[in-house]
Structure formats: C-alpha cells, structure tokens
Amino acid sequence: MAQVPLAIVSHKRQVCSLYKRALRNLEAWYDRRDVYRYRAVQMRARFDENKNKDVAEGMRLLASGQKELFENKHFQPRNFANSPGGCAFEREVILPDWVLDYWHPLEKAQYPEYFAKREQRKKEYVAWWEKQYGKPDPSDLGHH
Amino acid sequence: MKYLSICSIAFMNLISVSIVCFILSLNFLLNDMIYFIEWELVSLNSISIVMTFLFDWMSLLFMSFVLMIASLVIYYSKEYMSADININRFIMLVLMFVMSMMLLIISPNLISILLGWDGLGLVSYCLVIYFQNIKSYNAGMLTALSNRIGDVALLLAIAWMLNYGSWNYIFYLEIMQNEFEMNIIGVLVMLAAMTKSAQIPFSSWLPAAMAAPTPVSALVHSSTLVTAGVYLLIRFNILLSNSLLGQFLLLLSGLTMFMAGLGANFEFDLKKIIALSTLSQLGLMMSILSMGFYKLAMFHLLTHALFKALLFMCAGAIIHNMNNSQDIRLMGGLSIHMPLTSACFNVSNLALCGMPFLAGFYSKDLILEIVSMSNINMFSFFLYFFSTGLTVCYSFRLVFYSMTGDLNCSSLNMLNDEGWIMLRGMLGLLFMSIIGGSMLNWLIFSTPDMVCLPINMKMLTLFVCISGGLIGYMISLSNLYSVNKSHKFYNLSVFMGSMWFMPFISTYGIICFPLNYGQVVYKSFDQGWSEYFGGQYLYKKLVNYSQMLLLMHNNSLKIYLMLFVLWILILLSFLILL
C-alpha cells in the first residue's frame, strides 16, 4: 500500500523533496559541519543551475536526480533519535486513559475501589464540564 | 521517613555477596580446593533426584565479577532509568537475570545448566523488548530465536547424555573424550555456545540486541550473557583440545573476530560499535579456548567484562546526555563537555586496545604471545593480529568522532557530567578496569608462562596496535575538500558495514524460502485445489442435495405415495426373507 500514490504531487514539491533528501544524505556522508556546508552549497548550486528548464527537461532531471540519490544513499542514514527510523522512536508507550473503560466487567471487579472512584470522578468531571460550558448540543453527539 | 529505592537495596545485596564470593574464590584458588555440593531433592526407593553445585575458584571468581558488575549497573540504573515508569520491573528482570547466571555458573549438570541457560534466554528477551517500539520487538525476536537454536542443541545434548545414565558431564569428560557419543555432545554444546556467544553464523543478534536499555547492554550483552557460551566451553574444554572440533571453532571464531572488527569500523551507532567490539573480543576468547588455553580464555573473559561494562556505562551516560541519540556523527568535543565520563570512556577504550598496564593488556598481550608461540596456520595467525589492529583502529575512530572536534549535535543541548550516581557507578568500574588485569594475572597464574619469542615477533603486537591506531585516525580525518572514503568504495563499505550481510541472511535469508513457499501453497492449495475440492465442492454438493430434498418435500402426493409403496415393499421383502 505504501507505493500507492494517494495524491497528485506537483513537480515543484517533488524537486523540493529530492533536494531535502539529498541534503540529508549529504549530512550522513559528511559528518563535520564545515565539510557538510561546503557540499550542501555545491548541491544547491546544482539545483539552481536547472531552475528555469522546461517541464520535459525538468522531469528528466528529476528522474536522474532520484536515481543518483538512490545510488549514493548512505548505508546507515542519520536519523533523529525520536523520529521514525531513529533508535528511540516510540520507545515508551503510555496507554490512553480511556483503555480502562473498555475493561471487561470481570476485570473491573478485581479493582472495585479504584473503579468506583473512577466512575465517581467521571460524574464529577461531567458535572464540572456542564457547569463550565453548559450542556452539549444534542446535534453534536451524533458521531457516537 | 526516607525509603530506600529498589536500586539501592539490590546494589547493597549484590555487592556484599560479590565480596564474599571474591574472598571465597581467593581461598579456593590458594588452597586449590573444589567443593561439590549434592543436595538430594527427592529420594524414592532407588530413585533419587540430586541437585549438584560445583564451587571452584573459576565459578566463584566469575560469580563475584558478575555480581559486582550487576550491582554497579543497578546502582547506575537508579539515575539512568529514573524517568522510567517501570523501573521496578526493570530491576526485577535484572535480578532474575543474575539468578539465572548464577545457576549456570555453578552447575556441573547439563539439566541445571539448561535451566540457567533458558532463564538467561528468556530474561534477555524480556530485557531487549523493554522499550516497546517495533525495533525492540524485532531485535528481541531475533535474539530469542537465535538463542533458541542453542537451547535446542543443549536439549539434544541432554538426550544424548542419557547414554551415560546421568547428566553430570563433569564425571565423563576425561574418560569418555574419545567416545563417539561424547563427540556428538561436544558438537551440540559447541553449537549452543556459539549461539550464546554470537559466533558466525549466529552473530546478527548481538548488535540487534542493543535496542535494550544501556544498563542492560552493559550487564547482559557485554560482560555476562554473551560470555556464558565461552564459560560453558571452558567447562567442556577437554573436548575441544587437539580435535577437529577445536580447529573448526578456531576458524569460525577467528572469522567472527575479523568480521566484527571490520564492521565496527563502518558503524555509526555508538552502542553497536561497542557491541561489535564485544563480538570481536568474544571471538578472541573462543579462538584461544579452541587452541586449548582455557585459563587464558577465562582471564580475558574476566578482564573484558570489567572494561566493557565500563565502556557501555560511559556510552549510556553520553546517550543520556545527548537526548537518546546514539549516532556518533552527532557527537564531538565531548571531552570538553563531559570530562569525567570521557576519561572513563578513554580508559576503558585503551584497556580494550591493550594499552600497557591497563586491564586488557595483561590478557590480550598474553594471548597474542601464546598464539605467536603456537603452531597455527598462517590464516588464523593473520586473523588474530589483523583483528587486534582493527580493534585499535575502531577504538581510535570512535574517540576521534566523539571526543574531539566540534559538537555536532543540535543546539540547545545541555551536556554535562552532572549525573553523580551514574558517575559513581562508573568510577567503581574504572578502578577495576585499571587494576583488574594485573590483579587477576598475579592471582590466576601463580607461575608465569615462559614466553620466548624473537624481538620481531614480540614487537608485532605493538606494531599492529600502533598502525591500527594510525589508520583509525587517518580514516576519520577529513578536510573541506575531502571525499568520504567509504563513498569511494561504496559496495565494499556496505558489505563490511552490514556485518557481511549477516543480519539479512539470518532474518530475510531464513524466512524468505518458507514465506515464498507459503505463498505458493496458499495460492495453489489453500485457495486452489483445497478450496475447489474442499470448501467449494462440499458447498456445491450440499446445495444440490438440499435442493433435491426440497423437491421431495414439495407436497407432491405422487412422491409420498411412491415412497409409501416403496416402504411397504421393503418391509414385505424383509418379512418374507426373514
């Protein structure tokens, strides 16, 4: 499914995306900042050179650029730790509170005091909400 | 009232047991004692189930080291994992791991070894998947399944051992060493040890297991769990010496050492570099063990445990400060920002390289000199010395990347040495990393080995170390106009940087055929013939039959009468015939 194009991406956006990926790739290859800057400027110059080409030529250049990027891709790309692909991505899963509402009654029965207090607090919260913001409009409740 | 945290309680308990074990081991070593404790669990008529424990200097010393490292790691975790909501679970898992390790160390019996061994596998799986992202789950699965092969090998060895009537292998090793059955047990135990110690072709799980929290890596994946395989083979060393098995292991472990050393030079993940370095040192231990020098393997195992745990703890402190980022390309100039951590890091790195008078020097130098004196083939000799050079090379590269130059990390990062609890844990091990080698050398080898080598051979170790260091420095060097060296040799870099494609082979490579086969079977059997003759055919037939039945029930008087006549005829025929 990942390969199915879900939207039409304009040529401009494709070029921008290629440029960004090329820079990220350069970042992976050249780790010292000054060296990277030098390479990045060169890369920018290469893109700028072909700025005002016609569409057919632009598409050919885009295809060749993407091929070049693929062939020069770093074997261990530099990822941000907390972003997809990074080592700390989605490391700790904090379960949302509503999961407890979907417990089976038998499971809930094992912690009677907790759930009694929880129900009480929910009621108090609803009362507080209604006092603060008024009763919800019945037409808004349709999505349930 | 101030409560003691679970970390402090566990630390105090473990360190005190560790000290007791250490003193006992000295006593056992000096008096040359071995205690064999038999504990009869059940005795019914002539059947008795006996639990046996073996206490000698080796097991006690290993136990004291494991406990000491575990205690310091737990102490360190107090701060490292302080933001974690499940720290109690974490400490419990680490303690369970230590228990399993203890059971493994003191067992002279294959069954109880299997108990400890399986415990290690299970707990290490739980620890690898401690962080709950997909990477950790995949790494955990790879770890657990790779180790499972070893568990199965041990189970098979237990089945074979039934030939002898008991599983106390220690009684049979010497007298039965030329028996065919014993050789099979040797092969199986070697297979088990190779999986646990991540030798080729089971190497891919060790770098993957770095998805675990860093204290776990410091304890489990550097100093204790992975050395369990080496320890098992130390116990079974009689089967390896002067046999084809030993030669085979020498080749594989030499290749592991070489592959890991090469891989570490192309790796950018801080923890994975250290993991590959562990793999390389495990290869060294295995190879010297396969040549018959089990005491040397034990010596290197212990010193390696000390400085590698420290190295991991320093790496953890760095990662903690870098906001979980492990990429060494993002580091730089850490010696200015984190001087104490950097000092510990450098000491452990130098100990790993074999810098004279640090822990690693005594064991590594001795191993290389013994190798120089032994009769081994040129290829193995090359692997030994080249890998030593590679070790220095990647260590220097690592230091160059992380300690020197400018900080490459994102701005607004507070880097400092403020984690005093973590630092105290590290300083404890720092002390041991400096004096551990000489101390053990004087303790284990009461009469030093006679090493007699020509000056060239003697200097060879030093030469490979210095040239390795220089190459490490040179390959990391870059200026404004330099082209990345690994970019020039792209294919080679990819090959070496991905551990000779071993992670792909042991995951996709293994699952590829069953998956493809499964697809074919699914397509042509599940959805093909089986569906045609099974589900669909049955359905069609049932539909036909029920249509016929419906036809019969269609209130057709003729059919009823015909059936009535038919029944009368059948009954009559029965009456006449009977």
UniProtKB/TrEMBL annotation, chain A:
GO terms for cellular component: mitochondrial inner membrane; respiratory chain complex I. Pfam families: Complex1_LYR. Transmembrane segments: none annotated. Coiled coil: none annotated. Belongs to the complex I LYR family. Accessory subunit of the mitochondrial membrane respiratory chain NADH dehydrogenase (Complex I), that is believed to be not involved in catalysis. Complex I functions in the transfer of electrons from NADH to the respiratory chain. The immediate electron acceptor for the enzyme is believed to be ubiquinone. This is NADH dehydrogenase [ubiquinone] 1 beta subcomplex subunit 9. The lineage of its organism: Eukaryota, Metazoa, Ecdysozoa, Arthropoda, Hexapoda. The gene is Dmoj\GI14070.
From TrEMBL, chain B:
The chain crosses the membrane at residues 7-29, 49-75, 87-106, 112-131, 152-172, 184-206, 218-238, 244-266, 273-293, 299-319, 340-361, 381-400, 421-445, 457-477, 489-511, 559-577. InterPro entries: NADH_DH_su5_C, ND/Mrp_TM, NU5C-like, Proton_antipo_N. It is an enzyme of class 7 (translocase). Keywords: Electron transport, Membrane, Mitochondrion, Mitochondrion inner membrane, NAD, Respiratory chain, Translocase, Transmembrane, Transmembrane helix, Transport, Ubiquinone. The keyword Kinase does not apply. This is NADH-ubiquinone oxidoreductase chain 5. It is found in: Mitochondrion inner membrane. It catalyses: a ubiquinone + NADH + 5 H(+)(in) = a ubiquinol + NAD(+) + 4 H(+)(out). It holds the Pfam family NADH5_C.
